[in-house]
């Protein structure tokens, strides 16, 4: 079999292949995240006062990204977020990456697909 012949087994493999060969990010969403002045523990009033741009999922206002701890929580809980589309997940991952860079949080994953969309933890969202 020639080396140029590649069998694409899955969409994820295709994205990995493109990223590896061309060094391109295959997620097309543009980050909308902007740093917020509120940090640390957020009560309901704090969350309600945040702009949509402070959230990983801005349309749904899910997973605020107001400090390094919230960024790490958003990564850990990414697969627990329900009722969002793949496009929403791409948007959220772009926002998480931008917030992580701002707060100096290291992210190993190159795509939201590595975080998943079905819960793999023991405590999924209800």
Provide keyphrases for this structure.
globular; mainly alpha; disordered N terminus
Overview of the structural elements:
This protein has 126 residues and is mostly helical. It is 35% helix and 5% strand. It has 4 helices and 2 strands. It has a two-stranded antiparallel ribbon with strand order 1-2. The chain is globular. The N terminus is likely disordered.
Question: What does this entry show, briefly?
Answer:
The chain is mostly helical.
Question: What are the SSEs and their pairings?
Answer:
Elements: H1 11-22, H2 44-49, E1 55-57, E2 62-64, H3 68-76, H4 86-102
Antiparallel strand pairs: 1-2
- Structural class call reads mainly alpha
Which whole number gives the mean pLDDT? 78
Name the helicity range. 25-40%
Report the total helices.
Answer: 4
Shape descriptor: globular
Largest sheet, spatial ordering of strands: 1-2
How would you classify the quaternary structure? Answer: single chain
Q: How many strand segments? A: 2
The Cα radius of gyration reads 16 Å
Please give the largest β-sheet: 2 strands, antiparallel
Order of helices and strands: HHEEHH
| Beta-strand fraction estimate | under 5%
Uncertain parts? 1-6
**Termini distance?**
49 Å
